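Tutorial, part two.
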Amino acid sequence: MTKNIKSRLIVMNFLQFAIWGAYLTCVGNYLGKVGLGDLIPWFYSIQGIVSIFMPAIMGIIADKYIQPQKLLGICHLLAGALMLCAWYIGYSAGLQGITPDRTSILLTYSLSVAFYMPTLALSNTVALWTLRNNGYDTISDFPPIRVFGTVGFIATMWFVNCATLTDGRFFFSLSNNMRFQYTEMQLFVSGALGLLLAAYCFTLPQCAISKDNS
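Running the prediction step on this input gives:
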């Protein structure tokens, strides 16, 4: 485990921010295209609102009741599933040629973000604890691992900006108006990556919780 621990944490950080990069910079493009442009401020504001209390709540749970890597997996499982629900709302509305139900898509998106935002801190907790527990210097060894989170964010941002699925064909384009950045497929990419990371988190080394050390 010690030999590949850095590689495993790199994968975790890559996926952690890849989930966010799939929609953060382009969800407004999709909302505007489907007639929900007035919701754009809410879609972005909700991240700041839930960040006020959700990380604190999940931090208390991770400190006292559930191991951080397990809680990280649970949060990503819920966030990913809810993001896929938001995708399906948009997808089914698109098939019918109607505007997605504004209440349903905003609610599922908001709940997804509410469970995602605490994972930013939880992933750091898991990485730092795991490095220390395996004899690594967190000051020198963590930054090169964390930078792969930025790489993951950029990678999925580029992917949804160019990926296109039209008439059953998948290809990359720089001009097609059905690129993922203009459709609900960006939410699908984010949700699918969230479920992938959720499964991965349950394979990570176990972190201690406070009551185990009391």
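Residues 102-133 form the longest helix (32 residues). In part three we will examine how such features are distributed along the chain.
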